[in-house]
Structures are given as C-alpha cells and as structure tokens.
Write a structure and sequence with these properties.
The chain is α+β, with helices and mostly antiparallel strands. It folds into 3 domains: about 45 residues; about 100 residues, no CATH class; about 180 residues, hpI Integrase, Chain A (Orthogonal Bundle), CATH 1.10.443. About 40% of the residues lie in helices and about 15% in strands. The strands form 4 sheets. It has a 3-stranded antiparallel β-sheet, covered by helices on one side. Strands 6-7-8 form a 3-stranded antiparallel β-sheet, covered by helices on one side. It has a 3-stranded antiparallel β-sheet with strand order 9-10-11, with no helix packed on it. The longest helix is centred in the middle third of the chain and has 24 residues. The relative contact order is 0.07.
Amino acid sequence: MARQPKGTVRPYGDGRFRARIEIHGEHHSAIRADEQAAYDWLEAVKAVHLAEAPKLLTLGMWGQRWLRQREVSGQTAYAEDERAYWDLHVGGSWLARRALKHIEPKHVHRRLEELLKTEAIQRYWSKGELVTVPLGRSLSRRSVTKIHNLIRGAFYAAVVAGEVDSNPAAAVQVPATQERPDTDEWSWLRVEEMARLEALTFGAQGDTPRAKRDRARKTAERQAFYRAAMFTGLRKSELRHLPWSRVKLFGPSGVIEVRAPLKSPKAKRDIPLMPQAAEALREWRELQARADLEGFVWPASSGGLRHRKFRWWWWDQKQRSGLGHTPGTRTRARLRAVDRAHDPVDVKLHDLRDTFASHLLQGTWGERYSLGEVAQLLGHTSTKVTERYAHLDPDSVQGRMARMALHSRQEADTEG
C-alpha cells in the first residue's frame, strides 16, 4: 500500500491560506481564499496520488530516498553537488520514471549517450531568481562520468537494501568521445602574472582611518587566500574548510595540515608553507579578532563556514592585475590573460592549483620536483592524475618529447 503524503496549510496573507505537499520529492502548493478550501485542495491531491500511486519503486523515487540518506548520515562532503547533478540530469529523465527492477544495462547506456549530447549549462541565483546560462558546448565526459557514478551508487544501495537483485549500471561504461583540444598546459599563471595578483589591494578607497583599516583587513584576508592557493596547491574545498588549528606558522615558513574534507585517503597530507604564503597568513592572523582564531581561516561574516558557491572575490580581480574579463563570461566569474605570449585562455580559480604544480615541476622556486612528489603535495590518488603536467617535467619522457617537437617546429620555421 502506498504511503499517503503529508501536507501543511499556513496563513499566506490578506486572509488567504497556502497549502503545500511533497510527493516523490517534488513540492506542490496552492493558495486558496480560506483555510477550508486549502484543506480541500490537499485532500484532492492526496486522493489523486493514491489513485495513481505506482505499484513499483522507480529510480527517481529511490534516488531521492538514497540522496536524503546520504545527506543525513554525512556519507559525502558533496551532498549539494550530488543532488544538483541528480535533479538536473537524472531525476527528470525517462530513466527516473522506470521501475527500479525493470532497468537494464542498455537503458543506462542509452541515458549516458544522451547526456554526452546534452548542452552544458550553468545555474546561479541573481536577485532572487535562478538564472540558466548555456555554455555553448555539450557535457564533458568527466561530468557524464560523475552522473554515471551516482546512478551506479544508487543501484548499489538498492542491492544492499534488497530492492533489486543486481546493479545494471556496474556493467556499463561511459561511451568514448572525441577528445577536446588540450589546453591544460596553459592553465597556469606565469611568474609576472602571479606577481600582479599578489600586488593587488582591496577595500575602501581614501585616506581616512576607517578606509585604511578596511583596506588593510580585506587586502590581508584576500592575499592570504590567493597566496595560499598559489603556493600550496590546496583545493578550493580544502581552503574553505581550513581551520586555524591546522595552520602551523613558525619562523619564515610553516605547515598546513589537510584533514578535511578528504576527497580520497591520500588527500590527508601536510604541506610545507613557502615564505610567500606564510607571510600572508601571518599578516591575516594578526588582523583577525582573537575569537576568530578558533574557527576557520576565511570565515563567513557570521563566523561559520562560507557557502560552497562563494566565488572568493575572483570577479573583483578583472582588469586590476592586467587580467581582463572575457566578453560574455561575467556570470562564469572567469578572467582572461590579455598579454600572454601564447593564445589567451580563461583563467579559473582552480588554475591557481595548477600554477603551484606547474612551477614545482619547472623548478621556478629553485628546485625541481618529480611527478611523484607533486602528486603527494596535491593529494592525488595516483601519479596518473598528475601526468597532465608531465610535459612540464624536464626529466620525464613526455617532457623530452615535447622539447623535441618544439625544436623540430623551430627548425621548420627557420628553413621556411
């Protein structure tokens, strides 16, 4: 027998009442002239639900239950991201409406093929409204893989709960796609670009004492964040959750202990601080109130954890460090290098992590690091993830081949 959904009736204003009810994870509401009319609407909706209640558990129904359980139990540090992926790409699809027991591997494969052809979008809130911006490309294979992992995880939980006998998503792989042009080798800042970012000041303008205090505080806070990102390679989530208790400053340097959130077991690590990052963190700590030193390094105004969608002032940097914004990408909060020797590319906040890895491999700061050492500092699960930077490692096979290819091109240009 289907479980009857519950609803609520609350005063709405002007003597009217709002009735609300949740069915299969979806919220429905209606406004009626009086309280009795609102309750009558609720009863009518419940009657329709019971009359049309499915006899079999669907993937959409199970997915909502599974995601809610993960959120409550704290099994994942990315619950909001998982729900957003599920609701956008699974919850409203034909696959979600199929009975859990009737889904086969061919159905999962078909949905993954559809997703690879789906246009990628970005959603954000602006003035209380949800804005959707098309990105002009299809979903990446990496994004489709995340969705596949969610479907597979939902079925795994269903097998454990006895709802199905096998996991149809386990036998499916994301179809291969044509690789996009590789621009990762330029997704990092040069030394002079880093210097311009380090030289920025923030806060109120003017020479009044209040303006100077505001400028000093905001500059110290943001420079500490940017330098920590550039000179430690910490992930954005790791920086967001970083407490002062895990920052050990001594002498001209120090250590950051990464303990949460852990993307993988190898994400737990201790990162030595370079003088640039240690100096900025020390200045920021001196300006913070004593009570704040028991909490996060970069707290919200309430003192708690910043929202995961917080952009870390990234858009403020347009034009200010010689990096201008790319036309039409303001909502994506990206910058563009306008004076690079190579082709201009979008610079994302995550590229500060790539900057750290790239300069370690090139020996910019005096000593060259191997791929294995960089993988350990970045918290990668294996060196295969770090191989994206291999062309920058002068001692790697890829690095030597890249130099040979460059030399060949230079000779060809000379002969031409």
